[in-house]
Hints:
Layout: E1 2-3, E2 16-17, E3 30-39, H1 42-46, E4 67-73, E5 84-87, E6 94-97, E7 103-104, H2 121-133, E8 141-144, H3 150-161, E9 165-170, H4 173-183, E10 187-190, H5 196-207, E11 212-217, H6 221-230, E12 231-239, H7 259-263, E13 267-270, H8 280-292, E14 300-305, H9 310-319, E15 326-330
Parallel strand pairs: 8-9, 8-11, 9-10, 11-12, 12-13, 14-15
Antiparallel strand pairs: 1-2, 3-4, 3-6, 3-15, 4-5, 5-7
Amino acid sequence: MHLVRRPVGTPVPDDVDVVTTDLVVEPGQVLVRNTVMSVEPYMRGRMSEGTSYVEPYALGEAMTGHATGVVERSDDAAVPVGSVVVHQHGWREYAALAPQDVEVVDIDGLKATDHLGALGQTGFTAWVGLNLVAGLQQEETVFVSSAAGGVGAIAGQLARARGCTTIGSCGSADKAKRVMGDFGFDTAFDYHDGPVRDLLADALKEVGRPGLDVYFDNVGAEHLEAAIRAMRDNGRIALCGAIAVYNATEPVPGPRNLLLMIWRRLRMEGFIVGDHDSRQPDFLAEVTALVREGRVVSPETYVGHGIEEAFSGFLTLLDGRAVIGKALVALED
Length: 333
């Protein structure tokens, strides 16, 4: 899948093209048959040419993203034929890669796609934001926006595993029910039901908590302003994403109540998960055990089957209404 045009506002199918090409496997490379790829909100930013924390996709070249696959050819004993791997060369059916560019993953008692979700960058993002950025403590009150999304669902479950009270916001009533029923949130609301500040205040009353200790922000905009209003003294906000503004074509105003951050001694910090790669072993040790024990589940929604449906699946993700957890595209039957 090649990006052939920079999107303006919401991407459209004509921004990409499916290309067939001959794949040459060089000596020393491994050949991987991709089985599943993930589509993620950050990819929208890479389709634009503007400044970001990661290089934009090049026009006329295959896009990249996380994928799982099976090794079909290899001369490297550390990456044997038949092993299940994850790598960053999705958006294609086959990939010829250097052995160091793939990671052989453990699937004993796990799904291969767990390594795209709870045990992949999605789960690591949630873990970093809660632990390294927000400094989560036992039995705090945590608000997670986009709580039915891939990162949000894991963040809420990790907070629950620490004994925290968790509140989630979602894009539909059905998602709010799933967040509470499947992921253990104490309460959740559909942000379409009214001003977020009022819905969040009602949620805090429902769980009997005076305010928020931690806000894990995946949305920005109105959600961020509402969370600042509801924070307790010395609260912490981890800025993970701002999906509310990804397709904006005009500058979006920031929160109007930043003065509260001074009065309440709040801390707000943005983060890029790749800055914390040295903590991957700590993350995997903790969360692999939680997944095997069933205390954390890795929710996923297949939004397409086949490379031809990968971009429409990405658009489904951006729309948000039909996706619970990690958005995946199956690349083979």
